[in-house]
């Protein structure tokens, strides 16, 4: 199916979004123009093009319909010892994690994961926690298992971060003998497992396992990091690798002490890659965006006063056109690749997030419209640059 991206036009196509004037200033201190879409007497846990999952006082979970303004109660723990830890939208429902309220005095505490769909609820895991929903909303990543929400099939969790393609293909890392370094694996929906790569593991380490960590994919390319040197945690060196569909491996950067988690260090989407790199020449961290053609553009440099122990830098989101959202020193930025323009929100827990809206088109070619949002604890905003 051919994808056709129509970025930033959805405000003209859905009544839930309000038209906002485009700004012309182009410096990093420009404030993003935003318009309030929805606000709740509680905390927003997840949202998509048509739904919002939010909780009220950690006890009641609601599913709000953004199209008609109606909502249904997914869970009500009023009077019980359970609280809602988190919830994620699946393709057809809501997956949520209940946990024993620490203030209840009940011990041992219990963590369970439930799946709500069309008014029916089932428990899909006991003594586990919900991590994320992947693969077009059909796979729940839990602390020890992965669950196919359409079939109920479970698969063992890879050691590190697990990634799902839309067809259910799973990428993960796991140790291999005899060196006990972490290799990269692919697991097909039918259970067929293939080892894609084994690290060199040339350096002896007593505090960390060498090998691959944090695979991410856009369905064609695989992005992951490799621990290549480690005398202790403060002296770790990581290489960021890109494996293409023909198994060609490209090293994008080699960095000391960068963020350990994949979701803050790098992102991949539609062939575009955003990643954090330490520029040794200027002793600063930077954000780079690499195009599908391999052209790298620097979109942010940390200021001179930056240090390893303060003002963390993290990548939050990457759009299919290379537009990237990132956070530095309690300020969140959005760099719009098409216009080479940056806007920001000052000192706010809010972060820019991207969602795609799909519309029927002629034949088998649906239109996809990309929209950037700003989510705070209790409110959702439309964003214009």
UniProtKB/TrEMBL annotation:
Lineage, opening ranks: Bacteria, Bacillati, Bacillota, Bacilli, Bacillales
- Species, as recorded: Paenibacillus artemisiicola
Q: What is this protein called?
A: WD40 repeat protein
Q: Signal peptide span per the entry?
A: 1-25
Which keywords, in A-to-Z order, does the entry hold? Signal
Tree of life domain: Bacteria
């Amino acid at each position: 199916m051919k994808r056709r991206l129509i970025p930033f036009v959805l405000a003209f196509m859905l009544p839930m979004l309000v038209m906002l004037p485009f700004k012309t200033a182009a410096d990093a201190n420009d404030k993003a123009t935003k318009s309030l879409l929805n606000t709740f007497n509680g905390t927003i846990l997840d949202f998509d093009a048509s739904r919002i999952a939010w909780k009220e006082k950690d006890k009641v979970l609601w599913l709000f319909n953004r199209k008609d303004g109606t909502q249904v109660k997914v869970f009500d723990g009023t009077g019980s010892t359970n609280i809602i830890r988190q919830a994620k939208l699946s393709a057809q429902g809501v997956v949520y994690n209940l946990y024993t309220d620490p203030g209840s005095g009940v011990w041992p505490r219990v963590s369970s994961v439930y799946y709500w769909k069309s008014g029916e609820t089932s428990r899909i895991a006991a003594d586990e926690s919900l991590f994320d929903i992947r693969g077009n909303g059909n796979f729940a990543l839990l602390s020890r298992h992965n669950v196919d929400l359409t079939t109920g099939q479970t698969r063992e969790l890879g050691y590190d971060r697990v990634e799902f393609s839309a067809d259910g293909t799973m990428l993960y890392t796991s140790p291999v003998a005899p060196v006990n370094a972490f290799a990269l694996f692919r697991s097909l929906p039918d259970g067929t497992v293939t080892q894609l790569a084994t690290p060199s593991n040339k350096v002896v380490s007593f505090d960390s396992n060498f090998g691959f960590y944090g695979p991410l994919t856009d369905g064609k390319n695989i992005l992951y990091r490799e621990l290549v040197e480690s005398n202790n945690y403060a002296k770790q060196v990581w290489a960021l690798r890109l494996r293409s569909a023909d198994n060609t491996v490209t090293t994008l950067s080699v960095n000391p002490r960068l963020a350990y988690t994949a979701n803050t260090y790098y992102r991949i989407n539609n062939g575009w890659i955003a990643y954090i790199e330490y520029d040794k020449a200027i002793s600063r961290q930077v954000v780079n965006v690499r195009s599908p053609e391999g052209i790298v553009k620097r979109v942010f440099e940390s200021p001179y006063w930056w240090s390893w122990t303060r003002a963390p830098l993290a990548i939050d989101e990457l759009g299919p056109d290379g537009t990237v959202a990132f956070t530095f020193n309690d300020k969140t930025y959005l760099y719009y690749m098409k216009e080479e323009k940056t806007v920001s929100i000052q000192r706010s827990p809010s972060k820019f997030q991207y969602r795609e809206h799909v519309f029927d088109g002629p034949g088998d070619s649906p239109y996809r419209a990309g929209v950037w949002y700003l989510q705070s604890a209790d409110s959702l905003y439309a964003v214009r640059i």
